[in-house]
Specification:
By secondary structure, the chain is an alpha/beta fold. The protein has helices at 2-33, 83-91, 97-118, 140-153, 167-170, 177-189, 211-224, 237-245, 248-253, 265-279, 285-301, 303-306, 309-328, 336-340, 344-348, 362-365, and strands at 61-63, 69-71, 130-134, 162-165, 193-197, 230-235, 256-260, 282-283, 341-342. The chain folds into 2 domains: 64-260, 3-Layer(aba) Sandwich (Rossmann fold), CATH 3.40.50; 263-351, Helicase, Ruva Protein, domain 3, CATH 1.10.8.
Length: 375
Amino acid sequence: MAESRKDEIIRLQNEIIQSMAKSNLRSVYNDFFGVPKAPDVPAPAAPEKSSTSAKAPEATATSDGNGRAETDAKAQENPPEKLEDLLKELNGYIGLDTVKEEIDTLVHWVQIDKKRREHGLPQNDLSLHMVFSGNPGTGKTTIARILSRIFHSLGILSKGQLVEVDRGDLVAGYVGQTAIKTKDAINKAMGGVLFIDEAYALTNRGENDYGTEAVDTLLKAMEDHRDDLIVIVAGYIEPMEEFIHSNPGLESRFNRYIDFPDYTLDEMMAIFDMRCSKAGYTMDDEARCAARAVIARESTADVKGFGNARGVRNLFETSIARQADRLGETEGELTREMLMALLPEDITGEKPAPAAEDAPNEEAIAPAEESAPQE
């Protein structure tokens, strides 16, 4: 009985989330394209949000087996998005103030270099290969995605897709196979950005490891295709410094470094609030205090393990799972407000203390005092 009740709760929650998502998509579509004028002409389907860069309608996405999305190699070039829209999206991200400043400077540099070319002036040597360093969950992949679209808008990249890889996608276990795997990843990223997560794993396995072959192949491609390929390597700060200094070729190719600071407590709380709002959940002041306390405790105890925005997402998903369990045991009809409300115990996992009227009567259960023996 409890299981069927829980399934019903989850179904109702999903209906609310889907309803809000459809409404948000319609709003996004109308913001970009306007409300259709002729009612007898059906409007195009609202664009779906994607974890990769924006794709043309005919482009498809495939999975690489590790949960990462990559653009189909046969996808045609996407029309560039408006730069002002992309910068507005970038500035709408919570936190990342220093990162936004770095990107503004980079955009201005590219724009001025294009103006100099138009006027026949000598151009600067544009090298846009970058190093992103910071703890997990600080937005490195998110910024790489929007940068690929920004560079496409500026005319630096012909397609603007992002291809995300790690050591396993580049390094093989047999002689000669690593170069083939690495070239395949490079070909998929041509016209866009090749994003290599935890790139230091390519060089920290010893001299006889095939990772050095992957690095050599990358270095050649970065030089040969510098006009239509940008490589971004990412990872923890100290290991990334060792990685760049492990090879003179890497030091010469990567000359732009962006550090991603950890999110502040206020920023992580704003991310939690945003997730609640988008998914159709509400919190009262007590629940918000509980969420803030959990985030503060967990992120302070182990910032890398908590994972900044990643830890906030995990806390949110755990909270709504606990809410489903709680509502699954509730008798009576469930209202919309009940389905939306996150309580402190949903967030902390701790059962609330019993109310005063529910507390046992100590006088009623106290043992009777023994009477003094009569003489």
